[in-house]
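#lab-general

N.A. 3:47 PM
ok so I finally got the sequence cleaned up, no stray characters, all 345 residues accounted for. can someone with queue access submit it? mine expired

B.Y. 3:52 PM
send it over

N.A. 3:53 PM
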Amino acid sequence: MQQIAKKKFLYFVILILIVVVSTFIFRNYKQKEDSLNIYKVQRKDLEERVSFVGRVESEQRVVIKPGVSGKLVWLGVKEGDYVKKGQAVASFDKRELERNLRKYLNFYLKTRWDFEQTKEDYKDFEVWNISDTEKNRIKRIVEKAQFDLDNSVLDVEISKIALENATLTSPIEGVVTKVEPKTAGVNVSLAEFVIEVVDPNTIYFGFEVDQEEVVKIKEGMRGKIELDSFTGKQIEAEVFYISLTPVGKEAGITYLAKASFSNLPEEIKTKLRIGMTGEIEFKGKSLKGVIAVPVAFVEKEEDKEYVYKLIKGKKVKQEVELGEEIEGEVEVKKGLKGGDVIVLP
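B.Y. 4:20 PM
back already:
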């Protein structure tokens, strides 16, 4: 009997604990719910902020490709080197190209002499006492000699271009970011060879803006960039370009915008890399010291807006005149004052 009594007592204690805990949880929930449903009106500053994700890019970024394939006999740069505009960076074997140029020069001279001889042989054919058919035949002979001469000139020019292209130069000033292959003395095809140069002075932050947001930014607008690689450090930036036409083929219409870095800290400048991602934030319209309430507390009926004031524990419908809406809150020009308490409709 004593054992049964102890079990009943234990069950009773557990039941009491369950009731107490449930009551505590319910009261906390009710308090939170009430705090979400009630809002105390006060004056505040409203400020719109718009932000976009993007990445670091460069205006001056080139990939140097050879005009010929063959043996790479000299490689003058490595990754990380700084090059000047017009500086030679690599060279291919020129021996075959030089021989081709000499061959085409010789062919040009021969063709030139043949052309001069043809002109001399038929210089007066138009006044000869021959038939029109014979004159046309001679005319075609002279024209063919001219075509042969023109083609030989083109062969020489093409050979000269190929010889010049055997030595590669950088079209811009900047840092060498990629070199393939790494060493000279190997045969490479056009697809296998690449030297990439980036001008670090033209680095910018590129981001895409949808059509609803693009009207909120303009060239010259200043913002702050926080890169994922430098968490907590904000970099000043200024928009210098917004595309006139949409970019990409994804769903929705977006426009490309570019922002230049301003006052870039040295510890970030030396570590900045193409492709780094981050977010740029701009301040939009703002209102100082205005009466404002969350938009959710406003109810609209026909062409009028209302809120429900809490007066002596009762909900009283109050007409209001609204102003700007910023970041989920709306300015109240008339109908409320600081200290008023409103509840959700």
